[in-house]
Amino acid sequence: MIVFNNPFITEGNWYKGNLHTHTNISDGHFTCEQVIETYCKNKYDFLAITDHWWKITDNYLEKIKELTVKYNNILIIPGEEIDCGITKLGIINGNIGYNFHLVCLNIKNVILNENRKHNEFNPQDIINSVKSQDGEIILAHPYWSGLTLEDMLSIHGYIGVEIFNTDTHLTVNKGFSLSHWDDLLNTNRKILGFSSDDSHATTNDFRPIDLCGAWIMVKSKFLTINSIMKSILNGLFYSSTGPEIKKLEINNKKIYIETSPVKYISFISQNGSGMKLTAKKDNFLKYAEFKIEDNLKYLRIECKDESGNYAWTNPIFKL
Q: Cβ–Cβ contacts within 10 Å for residue 286, how many?
């Protein structure tokens, strides 16, 4: 039996959004207004403001609510990024910046630092606190954070991981966390994959700006926080840094996908299972089929265009 909530056959509209964004409230360069205007100009439908908790005050959410009213052409989701705990490599290396980073979405109450050291906060306690107020958590940039599989399995309740992060890609070339995702999927964790900007808007001659480089496309009935968050929780989205996924059909025997013109379409599963298709020279792929193998544990689809941009489906599981 195939287990997958297929957004391409689900009723609703497609909405483009970024779920990891910083402003000058914490360590971002632009004001909230400047950040939102930039995403508006690039035709984003929703945006989560997720400033770091050591700079957040009690009136932070009031600021976000004001912006939600002001910018009625883009939906603003309240959030917060929290670095906490100490990872396996942190213990080995003396905790030099080895923390869990949690992107907390749709929070009703901010979590404040209370002037304690970050590693004194247990990441599971933070997750439980966010979940208790009907918020959701994404595990940020596992590669950049130096997370091991043991680290990621030690916490529960997060809905997904950042499989691509624009900021960490442009700053230290650690933006892709696909092997971390595959490791989790191999343990039967039903973990979603997100591409996010983690935008700080710091730039120089050798570092392009990190706004509007990645997004998720969400199928939702309405452009409201409740509707968007419900669709995200149900996996009704795909991630992209460029390519468009246009169609996805799945039955117990075959998977069929249609995309914008790309150079590669990969069907990725456990160990050596799966298949990669490569377009011939000067040609492109616009569709692909994959026969579902009997030993299939999970499957995710990855597309890459000639500019090196990617799109990813969420994982398909076989029971």
A: 14
